[in-house]
Write a structure and sequence with these properties.
By secondary structure, this protein is an alpha+beta fold. The protein has one domain (10-177): RNA Cap, Translation Initiation Factor Eif4e, CATH 3.30.760. It is built from 5 helices and 7 strands. It has helices at residues 30-36, 46-53, 99-111, 145-159, 172-177, and strands spanning 10-21, 37-45, 66-72, 88-94, 121-128, 133-139, 167-171. It has a 7-stranded antiparallel sheet with strand order 2-1-3-5-6-4-7. A hairpin with a 4-residue loop joins β5 and β6 (133-139). The chain is globular and about 45 Å long.
Length: 189
């Protein structure tokens, strides 16, 4: 992992930023998905996070079908990863204009361990689409309802969402079974 300077503030976990974009309308196999996803870098401290983040495009300024992923080091942002395969994600669909603020609030809450669910959090994703933006947070154990409820309540608080915002929990096995995809099935909105 990345080496910290003595004065830096260590995070509880190291994290890796990833970026992906794809051509809409083309079915995505696991293989092509993995080729499309690029590591931006890994950080271990608050200061290293800000160094990456301050140079990154804000989600609201991304074009086309683009995603940022922020996952604990060693967990790939793919549902096949061992840490993810029995898990799921909370999905929040946002109207245009909210993604940058919500993404920042979400990842700062995640890095600051505000979800209070032990090792359950795997990572977070912001997906920029033409009509809307989508943010999600992934956890390890989809069947643990106390954990998923606590994550939901924390999301509501830290994102300060409009009252009519729809939040949906989806297990990764449901995503895999979605019809209408070729090859290994994947939910990519």
């Amino acid at each position: 992992g990345p080496h910290m300077l003595e004065a830096e503030h260590p995070l509880q976990y190291n994290y890796t930023f990833w970026y992906s974009r794809r051509t809409p309308g083309r079915p995505t196999s696991s293989q092509s998905y993995e080729q499309n996803i690029k590591q931006i870098g890994t950080f271990a401290s608050v200061e290293q996070f800000w160094r990456f983040y301050s140079h990154m495009v804000r989600p609201g300024d991304l074009t086309g079908h683009s995603d940022f992923h922020l996952f604990k080091e060693g967990i790939k942002p793919m549902w096949e990863d061992d840490a993810n395969k029995n898990g799921g994600k909370w999905i929040i669909r946002l109207r245009k204009g909210l993604a940058s603020r919500c993404w920042e609030n979400l990842i700062l809450a995640m890095l600051g361990e505000q979800f209070m669910v032990g090792e359950e959090i795997c990572g977070a994703v912001v997906s920029v689409r033409f009509q809307e933006d989508i943010i999600s947070i992934w956890n390890k154990t989809a069947s643990d309802q106390a954990t998923t409820a606590r994550i939901r309540d924390t999301l509501r608080r830290v994102l300060n969402l409009p009252p009519n915002t729809i939040m949906e929990y989806k297990t990764h096995t449901d995503s895999i079974k979605m019809p209408g995809r070729l090859g290994p099935q994947r939910l990519l909105f």
